Amino acid sequence: MYRVAVVGVQGDxxxxxxxxxxxxxxxxxxxxxxxxxxxxxxxxxxxVIIPGGESTTISKLIFREGIAEEIIQLARDGKPxxxxxxxxxxxxxxxxxxxxxxxxxxxxxxxxxxKRNAFGRQRESFQIKLDIKGIGPFDAVFIRAPAIxxxxxxxxxxxxxxxxxxxxxxxxxxxxxxxxxxxxxxxxHEFFIEMGT
Length: 197
Ligand code: GLN
Prior knowledge:
With 197 residues, this protein is of the alpha/beta class.
């Protein structure tokens, strides 16, 4: 049975669990999606999602609980790992000055440069239609979103908004600046699960 773990220490966890369950159903894969805040679940899963929330808080908790090491191992095993919004920040190798100032530990799984709260205060939250490579037009919800400002050579850019990269993939790692779990459309979660099947 295919298991998707959603790191449940903070943020929009339940929405990801529901989207992942619906995506599994639509793909006809027998499986489950579970939220976890304890060591031991991610390592027994086939895929893991790091939700949005507050990157500083999520970082502290995953490193304290030993979940960070489990995510890194899963990624090394070639299993799909998806980070959305704050989760994208945690996936990156190169943080910005805010990441440095708050001494936020990153997982360093994607060769990308991220900028926290890249869209400014005037645009705290907004919804736009993106064209995502491999998925197509997608209604994307941004909430105090980060952006990818630069990518390394092994990273594939999947979507851009203005001058910012907002979706990217590096082998089995998928990073999104927006929240695919906040719309009923499950295609991003399907794409993610299919990366590992
Ligand atoms: N601004 C948040 C951070 O930097 C991310 C926002 C979100 O995940 N919705 O951690």
